[in-house]
Amino acid sequence: SSGINAEWPLRPGNISLQQHNISLQQHNISLQQHNISLQQHNISLQQHNISLQQHNISLQQHNISLQQHNISLQQHNISLQQHNISLQQHNISLQLFYNFTKRLQCNLHNQIS
User: Fold this and answer.
1) Cβ contacts of residue 8 below 8 Å, gap of 6+?
2) What is the CA radius of gyration of the chain?
3) Does residue 14 contact residue 8 with C-beta atoms inside 8 Å?
4) CA neighbours within 13 Å on the CB side: how many for 11?
5) CA 102, CA 97: separation in Å to the nearest integer?
6) pLDDT tens across 46-87, in order?
7) In the structure, what pLDDT confidence band is assigned to residue 102 with cuts at 50, 70 and 90?
8) What is the number of other CB atoms lying within 10 angstroms of the CB of residue 102?
9) Could you write out the DSSP letters of every residue in 28-66?
10) What are phi and psi of 70, to 5 degrees?
C-alpha cells in the first residue's frame, strides 16, 4: 500500500492535472499583468482628465477676466457718453448766450441810430 502512495504523484493523469494547473497559473499571471496594465491606463486617463479640468478652469478664469474688462470698457463708454452730453449742453448754453448778446447788440445799435 505504501508503494502505491509513493507512485501516485507520478501517475499520468496526475501529471496532466499538474500541467493544466501550471497552465492556469500562467494564465492567471497573464490576467493579473493585464489588470495592472489596465489600472495604469486608468491612472493615465484620470491624470489627463485632471489636466483637462485644470485647463478648463484656466479658460473659465480667463473668460471671467475678459468679461470684467468688457464691463470696465462699457462703464468707460458710458462715462464718455455722459461727458459728450455735458459738452453738448454746454454748447447749447454758449449758443443761447451768443444769441442773447447778438440781440442786445442789435437793440443797442437800433437805439443809437
Assistant:
1) 14
2) 48
3) yes
4) 10
5) 9
6) 999 999 999 999 999 999 999 999 999 999 999 999 999 999
7) very high
8) 10
9) HHHHHHHHHHHHHHHHHHHHHHHHHHHHHHHHHHHHHHH
10) -60, -45
Residue 62 buriedness (CB in 10 A; 0-12 / 13-18 / 19+): exposed
Give the three cell numbers for residue 10: 507520478
Phi, psi (deg, nearest 5) at residue 101: -65, -35
DSSP annotation of 11 reads S
Q: Which three cell numbers stand for residue 17?
A: 492535472
- What's the one-letter identity of residue 26? Q
Distance from the Cα of residue 46 to its chain's centroid: 17
Helix (H) or strand (E) holding 9: none
Amino acid at 17: L
Task: Report which DSSP code applies to 8.
Answer: G
